Structures are given as structure tokens and as C-alpha cells.
Amino acid sequence: MGSFDPFTGPIPTVVHLHGAEDSSLFDGAPEAWFTPDGRHGKGYSTLIATDPNAAVYEYPNGQQAATLWFHDHALGITRLNVFSGLAAFYFIRDQYDTGRSDNPLRLPAGPQEIELMIQDRQFDTNGQLLFPDSPANPSLVDGAPGNPGLHPFWIPEFFGDVICVNGRSWPYLNVEPRRYRFHIVNSSNSRFYRMGLADSKNGAQGPPLWQIGTDGGLLDRPVQLPGLVEPFATHPTPTTRLFLAPSERADIILDFTGASGRRLTLTNDAQVPFPSGNPLHPSDPTRSVMELRVNLPLSSSDTTYNPASGAPLRGGQNQEPIIVRLADPVAGQLAPRVQPSNTRQLVLFEFESPAGQPVEDLINNTKWRGIRDRAGNPPDTRVPGSKQDTFGQGIWMTELPRVGSTEVWEFLNLTVDAHPIHIHLIQFQLINRQPVTIDAYTAAWASQFPGGQFFGYTDNPDGSVTWGVVNYPLGVIIPGYGPPHDYLKPNADGALGGNPAFSPFLSGPVHTIKVFPGFVNRFVVRWAPQATLVGGVQPGQNLFPFDPTKGPGYVLHCHILDHEDNEMMRPYLPVP
């Protein structure tokens, strides 16, 4: 176990371009960090020789136009580096969405195209950023770290009491009575947002938000989000509000025509944590994000694209082709002619202390290194079905899809949180989700664990909890053991992953809306450029302008940064 003393050395960092199709050599692998004094992680790489405290990356920028962002991704401290400010926008432009005022799509541009980076933060009485790391510096929302004998500086989720946009607390923006385009990213550590517009004076409903794009670029047509006041809900339900989990982006148009003199507040009603938290109190300051003041004179006539017309954004002359659909969002099934090579069934699991405090969040019950920790006696072993990385990082990978292949990944969420899963290199599409009898599956899953001596926490006579060697009995979940069976041996559903089949525990109809805990969430994933047509690539065929099978590898992880930093992240690498 590492030291419990505060770290006093140079801060590691590495940049990840979130949403990019790039080589893993330049993807910002967690082990690719470097420091101001020139130390390097085992995954470090640079395009050309440079100073030891630097790296040179190469981005192809060949994707269709999209709103990306870049942020730190250093192993174990991403939450701290992003909280400290290491995050920014990165726009991919193309010949259609050029960012110029004469763009073929007639989208608002120049002063009418604005980025909004939304974050919640906490400050001390001197106005400095304050991250809760001890009883002396508790979170104003969740208190101090709940397991000081296990993780003295870690809290399960950070929630601040101040909403910042582009680094300013509750700012305002003066606008003209015309259409504006906003690129929005939720770069909060853990907070979800459900947003709409309301009149600042009387709370009356404001103009609708027109969503024209998501993480992967422009939509085929705009979607109207009225932003209605909605009842509190802890179960999946459609929403009229702009709903963004950490790391998600939205491209929207707001039309202020006819709103001269009005002040409009961008409001938020998402509980923390989401969805298990209590409703926000009416006086909670995080219910407000920012204010839009329609007090500037109209500088010129507005001839930009009007989303209320419903005119297409893709598929026409001087437009990108329509989105390649790997899933049928209406039927909740794979699109015609999509043929997956494999199905993987992965379990999201949270390991708790006796007091009910989260200790670790795990993907498929597997830690970052892919090792079953026996504290060295007997020797540690790898998770069966895994392969060691070839870059010398000392990590074992279980997800090794073939480049060019298509797979179905099913995530069964046993936790109380909604987890925004991010898979580097590719975009993936939701097929459907289906409720599960969680208690029954958890019991069946636990029954498959063989028992044995592994590293875990120990209850002490004084009531404290510390790390130590634990003798787990048969039929008890062993945190960090990995799945109970060999990852590569298909289960009764024919799925890889090493877990009991999900199908006997499905308890309700298929749905196709937002991912929540207590559900199997099915995604279709393809290792090819996003614009590749269905049937346009075969397993083993590489259509990227680089070799994705080389380098330190990519990762899949929860984008609640406090989870990512505490084991809810796994490396993966496409194979030839």
C-alpha cells in the first residue's frame, strides 16, 4: 500500500483530446504522464524529440465537424488537475461547418458562436479553489472523506456549491435579439445537469433550446428542448431539458428574437448524486447556471439557420451525409446489416465499507492493472483471459477487440449512480436498456466467487477500517478479483466477460432512453472512423489514418472523475 502522506513532488500531467480519433501514442494514456522536472510514466511517447518536461502529439483532425475538448488524464489525479483548470474546448471544422460567417449551413458564427464550459467548484474565504481532502477541508455537500483509513484524500464524488461557466461564477452574457450558437460541455467532476431557460424576474418558461449537435457532431435535424419544469424522478423518464452528464457536449441554438429587454436564467434541476440524491432545495444556488441578458441592439439582420424550420443539417447539398446508424433507436435493436463479432457483458460494481461509504468503483470488478491483489503472498495473479500490454506499462488488458470489428457491449449497473462511460478512440451508440432484478443477480454473481486470501479492508477493534489481507469465504464478492470466471469463456448468453448470463434476470421491457442504475445498458461499438458506412469495414481492416493497434493503448472509464481516479478505468487495445 502506498504512503498516506500528502504528495509533495512535481505534478504529473498528460493531455487527452476527448472525442478524437487519434493514435494511442498521442491519446493521453493515463501512464503517459510527464512532470515539470522531466520524469515520465511508462506509457510516455512523443512524435519528435523534445524537452524532457514536454511531449509533441499529432492529431489527424480528419473527423466530421464536432465539439471536442481536451483535459488532463494523468493516472490517479485527473480529478485534481481538471478541477485546477486543465481543460479547454477543441473544435473540429470541415468544409460545411467552417466556423466562418459564410458557412454553407448558415449556422451562427463569429460573435454569435460561443463556448460554455460548465463546472461546479468550491472556494475558500480568500476566493481560492478548495478541494475537500480532510476533515479540516470538507465538501460543503458531502462532508469529509468517508474512509480515512483507506483513502485519506478521496471522496466518492465532488460536488461544489458554486457554478462556474468559463471560469467565472454565475456569469452573465449580453446578447442581441437574434440567434446564437452555443457549444456546451459539462466538465464538472461529478455533477449532472438538466437545464432549461426561465425568465429571471418571474420564473416563467423561457425560449426553447434547439439542440443541433452532440458529442459526435451535428444531428440530422434539430431537436426542440422546451426546458419545462419537471417533477423529480429517480427512474428513467424522458426529459424536455438539456441533460448532460460529466464530459458530455451539446451544440445548441438559442433564438432571442423578440426578447429584447428580457433577462433569462439558464436553470438546473439535477439532483446530486444522480439519480439517487435528493431534489435540489428551492434555494440551492446550483439551480442557476448563468444569465443571458438581451440588452444589445441588433447589429444586422439575422439570416442564419432557423432551427424552428426543422430544415435538415445533414444529407443535403453542401452538408455532411446523414449520421451512420449502427442501432435503430426506435426499435431498440441493431440497424439492418450490422453484424457484431462479439457480445461482452460487463458489471459495474461499487465496493463499500461497513459504514456504507464507497471504497472503490470497478468496471467488471477489475482494477486498473488487471491484477488480483494477494499482497504478494501468495503471488499476485492476472485476471484470467487477460493479456499483458506490449508497451511495458505492467498492465493486463481484457478488452482486445479486432480493429474494424463491431461488438455489442452490455453494462449491468449494480451501483446507485448513473455512470457516464467513455470509450476512447470511438463513438458508440445506445441500442436499448432493460431493467434487471438487481438483488437476484447480485446474489447469483456473488455465489460464483471461490473465496480465498486477497487484499481488502480489515475491521479493527476500535471501529476503524484499514487495508489488510482478508480471507474471503466461498460465495462472497471479492473486490478487485475480476469477474468470477475466465473472461474469454462465453456464458449462457454467449457473451464474453466472465460473468453469469444477464438474460435470466431481465425484468421488464426494452427502453431506449438515458442510462440509469439497475439496468442492462446495451451499446454497439465499432472500431472504425465514425463516418464509415454500415458494411464498409470488416474485422481486421484498419480504416483509421494511423495504426490503433500500436502504442500504450486506449481506456474505457467512468467520467465521474472521482470514480475514474479510484479504479473505475480499464485499459484496452484493438488488435489486428
Automatic annotation (TrEMBL):
<dbReference type="InterPro" id="IPR045087">
    <property type="entry name" value="Cu-oxidase_fam"/>
</dbReference>
<protein>
    <submittedName>
        <fullName>Bilirubin oxidase</fullName>
    </submittedName>
</protein>
<dbReference type="GO" id="GO:0016491">
    <property type="term" value="F:oxidoreductase activity"/>
</dbReference>
<dbReference type="Pfam" id="PF07731">
    <property type="entry name" value="Cu-oxidase_2"/>
</dbReference>
<dbReference type="InterPro" id="IPR011706">
    <property type="entry name" value="Cu-oxidase_C"/>
</dbReference>
<feature type="region of interest" description="Disordered">
    <location>
        <begin position="371"/>
        <end position="390"/>
    </location>
</feature>
<feature type="domain" description="Plastocyanin-like">
    <location>
        <begin position="390"/>
        <end position="437"/>
    </location>
</feature>
<dbReference type="InterPro" id="IPR008972">
    <property type="entry name" value="Cupredoxin"/>
</dbReference>
<dbReference type="GO" id="GO:0005507">
    <property type="term" value="F:copper ion binding"/>
</dbReference>
<comment type="similarity">
    <text>Belongs to the multicopper oxidase family.</text>
</comment>
